[in-house]
Design goal:
Number of strands of chain A: 11
Structural class of chain B: mainly beta
Radius of gyration of chain B: 13 Å
Helix content of chain B: under 10%
Distance between the termini of chain B: 39 Å
Radius of gyration of chain A: 13 Å
Strand content of chain B: over 45%
Largest sheet of chain B: 6 strands, mixed
Oligomer: heterodimer
Distance between the termini of chain A: 37 Å
Largest interface: A-B, 26 and 23 residues
Helix content of chain A: under 10%
Shape of chain A: globular
Strand content of chain A: over 45%
Number of helices of chain B: 0
Chain lengths: 114, 110
Amino acid sequence: NAGVMQNPRHLVRRRGQEARLRCSPMKGHSHVYWYRQLPEEGLKFMVYLQKENIIDESGMPKERFSAEFPKEGPSILRIQQVVRGDSAAYFCASSPRTGEDEQYFGPGTRLTVT
Amino acid sequence: ILNVEQSPQSLHVQEGDSTNFTCSFPSSNFYALHWYRWETAKSPEALFVMTLNGDEKKKGRISATLNTKEGYSYLYIKGSQPEDSATYLCASSNDYKLSFGAGTTVTVRA
């Protein structure tokens, strides 16, 4: 059973470009979470999605950031018009249910904005 | 936002020795406490999820305890081995949203 997959592992974008980060949850998991680790900081919650629904996006910046988890295909975290402050490691996690379930993490995408 | 703190920030332990470190979290509205093991360039690996006061969980040489009334959890490593070197993260959750501490980085010296 493959774990959570994220791609790309490393992404370099110039200021003003768009970044698309993909996450394929573990088989059978319908709950996806995105976390961000800024330099010298801990992991911070961004957004929680179920298939086709955003449940909680309270940790996501209001502008330029969006997330989706379509019926078919991976979850996408999209950052428009990237700025240097968006440089961070973005981690995706998935779980079969919420609550007491463990969240299984992917290896992360390291975004560098030049 | 749940304020989760871990101490110490880092520690060095001799191979074969045992060690432990702390995670403290707000005890009000507690839901669950998660422990993860995170090696550099790898995914955080889930170790334990604990919910009940007095819970004790064990996985090989690693174990954890939980005190929800006073808001702390201990992680213990018995007979440390070099492969135990990693950053250990704890996170308190409100159902689905994990609030992470900064981690304790353990280095096991051979």
